[in-house]
Design brief:
Layout: H1 2-8, H2 10-33, E1 48-49, E2 52-53, H3 54-80, H4 85-107
Antiparallel strand pairs: 1-2
């Protein structure tokens, strides 16, 4: 299962997320101070870290980087095993759909 692979590489995933947070914090602070962009006070929580909205740092950079690094790790694992990525995921997807349909018909 993929979650076991992600647990195996948790240090890489977290380190990548921290790099992303540092990079976004650095670039967003520069962009904000230079007046390249700003944040609408009606659309943010109002919690700032280095003049950057809290949700932008953590929801955008932290969680997005975790998702992207996890995806690349899973894809590289599939490639190293010579398993076609798209075919494998589509096969699992359709098996789950069929399983849900069978579960609905047997219950009711």
């Amino acid at each position: 299962m993929e979650y076991k692979l992600l647990i195996k590489y948790k240090k890489i995933i977290l380190f990548s997320a921290l790099i992303a947070v540092f990079f976004v914090t650095f670039t967003e602070t520069i962009g904000f101070n230079w007046g390249l962009w700003s944040y609408s006070s009606e659309k943010i929580l109002g919690i700032f870290i280095f003049k950057i909205p809290f949700e932008h740092i953590f929801l955008y950079s932290f969680f997005l980087s975790i998702a992207l690094v996890s995806m690349f790790l899973i894809f590289s694992e599939y490639e190293s095993q010579d398993r076609p990525i798209i075919k494998t995921f589509l096969k699992r997807f359709f098996i789950r759909i069929r399983g849900n349909k069978n579960a609905r018909t047997t219950r009711g």
